[in-house]
Amino acid sequence: MSANLLEHINYTDAKLSDLDKIFKLELNSYDHPWTIGILRDCLVNHYDFYKAEYNNNLIGYIISKISIYETHILNLTVSEDYRQKGIATDLLEMIFAKCYIMNSLNIFLETRVDNTPAIKLYEKHNFRRISIRKNYYQTSDGKQDAIIFKKILS
Q1: Total structural domains in the chain?
Q2: Residues paired with residue 75 on neighbouring β-strands, in sequence order
Q3: What's the rounded Cα separation, in Å, for the pair 131 and 110?
Q4: Cα–Cα dist 66/105, whole Å
Q5: Which stretch of 7-11, 51-55, 72-76, 122-126 has the lowest confidence by average pLDDT?
Q6: Considering only CA atoms, which of 39, 103, 110 is closest in space to residue 67?
Q7: pLDDT digits (tens, 9 = 90+) for 101-111
Q8: In this predicted model, what pLDDT tens digit does every residue of 32-70 receive, in sequence order?
Q9: CA–CA distance from 38 to each of 9, 43, 44, 122 (Å)?
């Protein structure tokens, strides 16, 4: 995909009518995906939930909970065919922008200790490792640790 095509990605708020597409992308992206109920709850409870679409196809989304004091990024997913194209960065920047508006200057997230692409993405955006959460993620072999990251917006 050329940079020219990236200009045609549409970023908007996710809606309940997007739930089936979101769940399908979630299922295609993870061995242990979130349930459709969890995704629905995020939409119904007005979490900060943005989607990326290209040619009316859902290609990514981000879910976070932004509050005055701190923000938690809960899920960042990009379709495998569209990774390494800047979409995750655009979705993160949507969260950063709303955090600035709400004066939410501390952002937290977790990722698997072996998720090298995600770790590189977060470190590129000045997230810093602050801790390890033991046995946080379910795997086919049991549990896996998570790295907790924090970013301070200035």
Answers
A1: 1
A2: 63
A3: 10
A4: 10
A5: 7-11
A6: 103
A7: 999 999 999 99
A8: 999 999 999 999 999 999 999 999 999 999 999 999 989
A9: 26, 9, 10, 24
Rounded distance between C-alpha atoms, residue 25 and residue 109, angstroms: 20
Please provide the DSSP assignment of the chain as one string: --HHHHTT-EEEE--GGGHHHHHHHHHHH-SSPPPHHHHHHHHHTT-EEEEEEETTEEEEEEEEEE-SS-EEEEEEEE-GGGTTSSHHHHHHHHHHHHHHHHT--EEEEEEETT-HHHHHHHHHTT-EEEEEEEEEEEETTEEEEEEEEEEE--
Closest CA to 18 of 68, 65, 60, 70: 60
Output the domain CATH number for residue 143: 3.40.630.30
* Residues spanned by the domain of 56: 3-152
